[in-house]
From TrEMBL:
The keyword Magnesium does not apply. Keywords: DNA damage, DNA recombination, DNA repair. It comes from Corynebacterium phoceense. Residues 1-23 are annotated as: Disordered. GO terms for biological process: DNA recombination; double-strand break repair. InterPro entries: ARFGAP/RecO, DNA_rep/recomb_RecO_N, NA-bd_OB-fold, RecO, RecO_C. This is DNA repair protein RecO. The gene is recO. NCBIfam families: reco (TIGR00613). Involved in DNA repair and RecF pathway recombination. The lineage of its organism: Bacteria, Bacillati, Actinomycetota, Actinomycetes, Mycobacteriales. GO terms for cellular component: bacterial nucleoid. Residues 24-98 form the DNA replication/recombination mediator RecO N-terminal domain. Belongs to the RecO family.
Length: 254
C-alpha cells in the first residue's frame, strides 16, 4: 500500500535576522546541487510551503562544514533560509528523516528515485505542498516496494493532481466504457476502436487495470510484462504533457 503524503508542520513566519535580513524556515528535499565558487554549493530544494527554492549553502564543501552532509538527495530536511534577491542563503539544515541508505546502494531504486525528483521539479507549483509530501511518501515506499511500481504510482498520482490523469477504463475521447485495447496520450489515455488514433499503443486491458490500481493507491501484483508495459504508458503520458523528457528515465531504462 502506498504511503500517504502527510503535512509537514513547517514554520513559515519571517522574522528579521540580527543583520536585518528576513528569514524563514520550511521543510524541504534537495532536488539538484551545483558547485559554486571554491567551497559553496547552490542547492535547489522543493519545500513544503514555498515551492522550489534556490539557495546557496556557504562553505558546505569544506570538510568541517556544520551541515553540508545533510544537504543531499533523499533526506527530509528542516531548513532555515535568509532571503536574497536572486538566491536565498541556507543558514541551518536539520535532518528530519533519512531515506538514502536503501536507495543509493541500489541502482534501480536510485535511478527511479532520481526520476521522481526530476518529475517533481517540472510539475511543482509555488506554495503547493503536494509535491513535497508526495516525494517524502515515495522515499518511504522506495525502502520496501518494487521501484518501478513506486515511480509509476508517483507519476500517475502527480499527474492527477496536476489535472492530467490518464483515462484508464473509459475511452478518453468519447467516454465509451472499457476495457479497451489502445492507449494514446494525445487523446488522454485509453481509446475505443472508433476513437483510436494512428500510432496508438496496443495494450492489454489488465495493464490499464494495473495502472488504475496504482493511481488510486491500491495494491497491484501485475505480471512482469504488464508492469513493463504500464511503465512505458505512464512515462509516455507524463512526457507528452510536460512536453519534455525526464532525463533520469533514460538511465533507468538502459
Amino acid at each position: 500500500m502506498a504511503s500517504k503524503p502527510t503535512g509537514a508542520g513547517a514554520r513559515t513566519s519571517r522574522p528579521k535576522s540580527s543583520g536585518g535580513r528576513p528569514n524563514f524556515r520550511d521543510r524541504a528535499v534537495v532536488i539538484r546541487t551545483y558547485d559554486f565558487g571554491e567551497a559553496d554549493r547552490i542547492i535547489v530544494l522543493l519545500t513544503h510551503h514555498h515551492g522550489l527554492v534556490r539557495a546557496v549553502a556557504k562553505g558546505v564543501r569544506r570538510a568541517k562544514s556544520r551541515f553540508g552532509s545533510r544537504l543531499q538527495h533523499f533526506v527530509d530536511l528542516d531548513v532555515q533560509f535568509y532571503e536574497g534577491r536572486n538566491l536565498h542563503t541556507i543558514s541551518q539544515a536539520d535532518t528530519v528523516g533519512y531515506y538514502g541508505a536503501h536507495i543509493i546502494d541500489d541502482y534501480e531504486r536510485y535511478t527511479a528515485a532520481c526520476a521522481a525528483l526530476e518529475a517533481a521539479e517540472k510539475l511543482a507549483l509555488d506554495t503547493d505542498p503536494y509535491f513535497y509530501e508526495a516525494l517524502v511518501a515515495a522515499f518511504r515506499d522506495f525502502q520496501h516496494e518494487p521501484p518501478t511500481r513506486v515511480l509509476d504510482r508517483f507519476f500517475l498520482q502527480a499527474m492527477a493532481h496536476s489535472g492530467w490523469a490518464p483515462s484508464l477504463f473509459d475511452c478518453a475521447q468519447c467516454g465509451t466504457p472499457g476495457p479497451h485495447h489502445a492507449f494514446h496520450p494525445a487523446i488522454g489515455g485509453a481509446a475505443c476502436h472508433e476513437c483510436r488514433p494512428p500510432g496508438a499503443a496496443e495494450v492489454d486491458p489488465e495493464t490499464l487495470h494495473h495502472l488504475w490500481l496504482l493511481a488510486h493507491g491500491h495494491p497491484s501484483t501485475p505480471t512482469p510484462v504488464q508492469e513493463a508495459e504500464g511503465h512505458r504508458l505512464a512515462i509516455a503520458h507524463l512526457q507528452w504533457h510536460i512536453e519534455r523528457k525526464v532525463t533520469a528515465l533514460a538511465v533507468m531504462d538502459q
